[in-house]
Design goal:
Helix content is 56%, strand content 7%. The protein has 707 residues and is an alpha+beta fold. The longest helix is centred in the middle third of the chain and has 23 residues. Bound molecules: 2-acetamido-2-deoxy-beta-D-glucopyranose (7 copies). One of its GO terms (biological process) is protein processing.
Length: 707
Amino acid sequence: MSCTLVFLLVALAAVLRSVPSQALSASGLQIQLQEQLIVQHNDSVYVQRVMRLAKSAEMRNYMQPDTDACENFYEYSCGNWAKINPAEAVRPRETNYYQLLDNAYRHKRLRLLEQAADPESDDAAVLKLKRFYASCLHFRETPRTLYRQQLQALVGEFGRMPVFLLPGQEWPASEFNWLETVARIKNKYGFDILLRLDVAPDLHNNTRNRVYIGQPWKLGLESKSMYSSAVAELYRQEYVRHISEELVQHLHVEAELATVTAREILNLEIALSKGMVDPLTTKPLSGLTQSRTAADLAAAYAPTFNLTQYIELALGHVPNDTLYEYVPDYQKNLLGVVSSTPPRVLANYIFQQLLQKLYYDLDAPAVDQCLSIVGQQFPEILDHMLYLRLGDAATLTDIQDLWKDIKASFRESLQNTSSVWITATTRELALEKLNATHLQINGYADVNFTDRYAQLHIAPHDYLTNLRAVLEHETRQRLKSLSEKPASLPAPTKRSSLAPVYLATENAVRLPVALLQPNFLWSRYYPRALKYGTLGYLLARELVHGFDELAGSQADWWDAKSTAEYGKRKKCFKQQYGRFRQDGHYLAESDLQAENIADNAAVQLAYKAYSDYLKHLSSSAIGSEALPRLQQTPQQLFFLSFAQFWCTDADDRFKEKVSLLNIHTPNAFRVIGPLSNFQAFARDHRCAAETTMNPSQKCQLYGITSK
Ligand SMILES: *[C@@H]1O[C@H](CO)[C@@H](O)[C@H](O)[C@H]1NC(C)=O
Ligand SMILES: *[C@@H]1O[C@H](CO)[C@@H](O)[C@H](O)[C@H]1NC(C)=O
Ligand SMILES: *[C@@H]1O[C@H](CO)[C@@H](O)[C@H](O)[C@H]1NC(C)=O
Ligand SMILES: *[C@@H]1O[C@H](CO)[C@@H](O)[C@H](O)[C@H]1NC(C)=O
Ligand SMILES: *[C@@H]1O[C@H](CO)[C@@H](O)[C@H](O)[C@H]1NC(C)=O
Ligand SMILES: *[C@@H]1O[C@H](CO)[C@@H](O)[C@H](O)[C@H]1NC(C)=O
Ligand SMILES: *[C@@H]1O[C@H](CO)[C@@H](O)[C@H](O)[C@H]1NC(C)=O
């Protein structure tokens, strides 16, 4: 027995014993050992056997087979997850599959960064990245006073922060102009404070870039309801405490003043939030974006502020063509907020927002902190480096094939009787759009990073100076891209997000490199059922998002009859999900059913794609669509892998917070809802009529007519 195999079995044993406190690291360890095993062996039959045993053990561990699969398929699939990956009152407050993927991805990034810089083989940009990382690690030895002086000097570039005043000093209010301050910060470091400015593809014609100005993505708390809901008071208190501690720790502000200042910051954000749309539930490119001329923007909020002036200061010039304003209601509300807030409070807020992005915790472990910082500042190049390792030809072909299968399923579903509710004209347009939708893996294969970072200079030790240089460099590149064709620069992403997303401006589904990591959800050693049930489902879900109300496109090309029919079907979901209860409480009945609709369609489309795949398999190949010691048929394996993707444990406060954010249905219902609407699930599990998983009333929008 080889050495690695012994290790693997040790790791497996740890998982099997389900030692709660070590479990997360145990399964992380298991995965890494599996990877080593693959690297070190070339006997694929042998490796496949071991890998399948390991996956089977993992899947069985999470299950609670005593639960009736027809009554609660989530419990049946995930009932033991919490024992193996328990959430804790501190961190992690939630455990799930994305976290396992994220941990493994962090490890891979770390291994890249820890490789000694090699001027021979490393790309020039990679050398800069490694030098930056080294300067970050080194910074932990900086004396506190020096660190504070550096932060103060940063503020000094733009003005004076009132909390820095010594007793007896007066803050020169007359020298402060909030709009100029935030515009100059934007111009130099790229931060969006109070206002947001983007250079991004035109929402009506993605072959050119435009300027967008308006509401920032989000404020300090995750969602709008966190600022208003009575239930969220606890989180607001926690937020105030957190800001206040930061002011003390990083800026040496006296404790009482820090608390007062933190409260003022919260109150200001509460006032700002009143005009916001919630970015979590509304995509910004929807009807909330208006086209404007420079003159419109100058006049709209006169005489209080002049958005054209902001653009001029932030960009260095005012483009003479169409500009877009995001969420005008936010600006209308801002008008009142800036008029009624003392300038001193605005100034503290603006500088706290600026400094917060540059804080370095001298007491925290440097490796973890620097890994996160590098991940935030250089996400594309890190993704690119890992893409070169993970994106081998076989994997990429495999994923493209899966994508084609999913698209074919959707095409068939749109052409089929299941979609007769959409009028012929709208359906034709939908098919055209579907044809044009493409898959993007964000490996940045076509970006020349040496070129991109040519102007960036990184000094060996001076971390904060380096960070400023990186931010300035990034900002110059982004703002400059106005005159360039889109795609010359990778579009700004929601950084470090692991979930695939649908990009409306590009009509593409983007798959993060982190999801190319094999042996979690899928692997060439596992049955295909697992790949369709997880990755296939995820791709299908984003594909469907391209056709929903949030994509903002629906209004453009859906005719009245199809829209009305869509509304009817949406209502079915609204009522159905409103009947689910968690911990004795009904879920809020929500008009936002896009996520639920996408979940429902996606599992059906992925299932259909998998069924088609099975049809073309020889009977001997079908035999490999099983896992040792699991009795599941190929179809049941598909459903099990889908359900287990959603296994989670959350501590009670975290659950409460998620329900406040109120976007996604709780995980259990993301399994129960879609599967109980799906006839094929009931058939494959022989669920009697009117069991929970097989109600007679099923909701359907996009999907397949099964028989
Ligand atoms: C497997 O590895 C051994 C030694 O590392 C090598 O001699 C052999 O050719 C390899 N076999 C295959 C099929 O790659
Ligand atoms: C989009 O803009 C380009 C120029 O940037 C122009 O040639 C093209 O006609 C425009 N397309 C549409 C549909 O307006
Ligand atoms: C707004 O700012 C622009 C650019 O600085 C300037 O040209 C314009 O006159 C200003 N408009 C008003 C109403 O102040
Ligand atoms: C806008 O500016 C560009 C150069 O910046 C110029 O070529 C173009 O003619 C201008 N268009 C209008 C309508 O003024
Ligand atoms: C979609 O593409 C396929 C082949 O790629 C083609 O046969 C079909 O006509 C296209 N359909 C539409 C509606 O454009
Ligand atoms: C990237 O750009 C640099 C300098 O601009 C150039 O020397 C190099 O050949 C380019 N690399 C590739 C792969 O195109
Ligand atoms: C299309 O309709 C046929 C007949 O109703 C059915 O057998 C087939 O499964 C349907 N396909 C999809 C994708 O709904």
